[in-house]
């Protein structure tokens, strides 16, 4: 399997689609965001979703995850694939009286159900994800007590605990220190190499350039897509942000 994945990635993930969006429109009550959006997310690769604030990055992830209803068009997943959605840390209330271990364990609910007792396998997966994100020593602390970087790593660990084929992350490294950024980037690279398709909405152009594929959004539409070197060019960055291509 790893040899097949490596061959696909060397060939630009040609021919294998994880998700296809055809003419997708989506948004919120009274506020449409995506409009007639056509895009492809390749399987077994990392895709960066890039664009200015309000361009539709989070809405696209929500539509792919199924947590935001599509009002037109279709979102088609690779047969048998399951998505896991990692929200921004700011989306989790400080009032929730849950520990870091509880937070990660929530990622197992989809597999075992909310009311069934955790199995030995569930507990092993949770502990492995805690260690993978280097938050094992924090497992018994309340989520609200953590720093921003620690909390985001707990949410990424929750996503990994779902053992999904598709991992969707909304701004996973925004506002984090360099150490937390590096840990999350290393883990995402590892799971991609193991066959998970990773999609992250990001403002971090360094992270976007490390991706295999890039979707550049503007005002709810796909402006460009393809390898980051061909998408994140001077003209596009100056047009959308007034930034040079290399920072």
Automatic annotation (TrEMBL):
<dbReference type="InterPro" id="IPR003593">
    <property type="entry name" value="AAA+_ATPase"/>
</dbReference>
<dbReference type="InterPro" id="IPR047748">
    <property type="entry name" value="AztA-like"/>
</dbReference>
<dbReference type="InterPro" id="IPR027417">
    <property type="entry name" value="P-loop_NTPase"/>
</dbReference>
<dbReference type="Pfam" id="PF00005">
    <property type="entry name" value="ABC_tran"/>
</dbReference>
<dbReference type="InterPro" id="IPR003439">
    <property type="entry name" value="ABC_transporter-like_ATP-bd"/>
</dbReference>
<dbReference type="InterPro" id="IPR050153">
    <property type="entry name" value="Metal_Ion_Import_ABC"/>
</dbReference>
<keyword id="KW-0813">Transport</keyword>
<comment type="similarity">
    <text>Belongs to the ABC transporter superfamily.</text>
</comment>
<protein>
    <submittedName>
        <fullName>Zinc ABC transporter ATP-binding protein AztA</fullName>
    </submittedName>
</protein>
<dbReference type="InterPro" id="IPR017871">
    <property type="entry name" value="ABC_transporter-like_CS"/>
</dbReference>
<feature type="domain" description="ABC transporter">
    <location>
        <begin position="19"/>
        <end position="244"/>
    </location>
</feature>
<dbReference type="GO" id="GO:0005524">
    <property type="term" value="F:ATP binding"/>
</dbReference>
<keyword id="KW-0067">ATP-binding</keyword>
<keyword id="KW-0547">Nucleotide-binding</keyword>
């Amino acid at each position: 399997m790893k040899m097949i994945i490596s061959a696909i990635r060397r060939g630009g993930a040609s021919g294998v689609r994880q998700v296809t969006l055809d003419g997708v429109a989506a948004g919120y009550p009274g506020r449409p965001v995506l409009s007639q959006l056509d895009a492809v997310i390749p399987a077994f690769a990392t895709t960066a979703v890039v664009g200015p604030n309000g361009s539709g990055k989070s809405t696209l992830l929500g539509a792919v995850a199924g947590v935001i209803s599509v009002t037109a068009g279709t979102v088609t997943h690779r047969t048998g694939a399951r998505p896991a959605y990692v929200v921004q840390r700011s989306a989790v209330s400080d009032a929730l009286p849950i520990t870091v271990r509880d937070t990660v364990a929530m990622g197992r609910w989809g597999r075992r159900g909310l009311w069934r007792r955790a199995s030995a396998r569930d507990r092993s997966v949770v502990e492995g994800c805690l260690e993978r994100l280097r938050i094992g020593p924090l497992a018994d602390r309340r989520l609200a007590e953590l720093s921003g970087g620690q909390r985001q790593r707990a949410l990424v660990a929750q996503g990994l605990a779902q053992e999904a084929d598709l991992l969707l992350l909304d701004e996973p490294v925004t506002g984090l220190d360099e150490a937390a950024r590096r840990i999350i980037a290393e883990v995402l690279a590892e799971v991609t190499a193991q066959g998970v398709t990773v999609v992250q909405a990001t403002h971090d152009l360094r992270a976007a350039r490390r991706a295999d594929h890039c979707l550049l959004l503007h005002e709810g539409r796909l402006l460009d897509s393809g390898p980051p070197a061909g998408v994140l060019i001077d003209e596009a960055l100056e047009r959308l942000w007034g930034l040079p291509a290399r920072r």
